[in-house]
Amino acid sequence: MEKLLLMVCLLMAITMPSTHGLDRSPKGVDKWFKKLPNAKEKMTKLHFYFHDTVTAKNPSAIQIAQANITFQSPTLFGLLRMFDNSMTVQPDPNSKEIGRAQGIYGSASFQDIELLMTLNLVFTEGKYNGSTLSILGHNRIFHEYRELPIVGGSGVFRLARGIATAKTYWASNTTQNAIVEYHVVVLHY
């Protein structure tokens, strides 16, 4: 009897619509797209801090590749890091975590320290839990404000587009660790 109850619960969990009543099955997505012509576009504004920890006991950003010239280059050209950074509501790393920023960044300029960034903002708390925003852009890390395009999303952010504005809150040239403040404006349905 216990095995039958466990199987029924598992089947219900697999077949039920996902986070916040949004059906993510192929049929659910088709149904969502059919309603799209009548859907009203929404604007959502988000604010959080991204913690990029390169040197620590448990780093969140790890070097995965480099070019033959990376360490002879003043811009570290060709350096690639994969990251899984905490996103928090305050600059304090111990403040409430709302998600993870997961992706890759690489030094992409011979002249300046500028990054090519591709990442997903993966929300794990609140009304956006289970949803993502995707960013692909150019990050001039020494500029006060950097504008990165939002090129898509999932969950409540399906068909998202918008802008993420990054500003360094704190950084160490010695450790290469940084806390970056993000203001996000996103349009979605």
Note down, in words, how this protein is organized:
The structure is a single chain. With 189 residues, this protein is mainly beta. The chain has one domain: AOC barrel-like (Beta Barrel). It is 13% helix and 44% strand. The protein has an eight-stranded antiparallel barrel with strand order 1-3-4-5-6-7-8-9. Strand 5 and strand 6 form a beta hairpin.
- Computed structural class: mainly beta
Question: What's the Cα radius of gyration?
Answer: 20 Å
| Molecular shape | elongated
Distance between the termini: 44 Å
Find the CATH superfamily: Allene oxide cyclase-like
The ordered string of helix (H) and strand (E) elements is HHEEEEEEEEE
Number of strands: 9
CATH topology: AOC barrel-like
Question: What is the topology?
Answer:
Elements: H1 2-15, H2 26-35, E1 42-52, E2 61-65, E3 80-88, E4 97-107, E5 115-123, E6 132-139, E7 146-154, E8 161-171, E9 178-188
Briefly say what this structure is.
The protein is mainly beta.
Primary descriptors:
189 residues; mainly beta; AOC barrel-like; eight-stranded antiparallel β-barrel; Dirigent protein; secreted; signal
